[in-house]
Amino acid sequence: MGKKYLKYGGVRFENNVSPEEINEFVRNLPSSQKDSLFEVVSLLHKEGLITLYDGDSITIDRNMEEYMVPNNGDGH
Question: How far, in Å, CA of 17 to CA of 20, rounded?
């Protein structure tokens, strides 16, 4: 299976449990703990449901690649 990255964070992660278990965990969180992706991911990591890999990140959204404008380094 290919590497998985958080859509809005770019950090690589790996599931330690099934997607169904992760979904159930998130569904059962109080709404106050679902206010931010960072908080949800932190809780998933703390509970051992996912492993985060620091230093292995991506900042390109592959779904938006065709709309991206090259950076010429000149600010334009």
Answer: 8
How confident is the model over 41-55, as pLDDT tens digits? Answer: 899 999 999 998 876
For residue 10, give the nearest of 72, 73, 59 by alpha carbon: 59
Burial of 66 (0-12, 13-18, 19+ CB in 10 A): exposed
Residue 44: in which H helix or E strand, if any? helix 37-46
Beta strands in the chain (DSSP E): 4-5, 11-15, 50-57
Between the alpha carbon of residue 7 and those of residues 2, 4, 19, 28, 76, the distances in Å are 15, 9, 16, 22, 26
Predicted TM-score of the model (pTM): 0.65
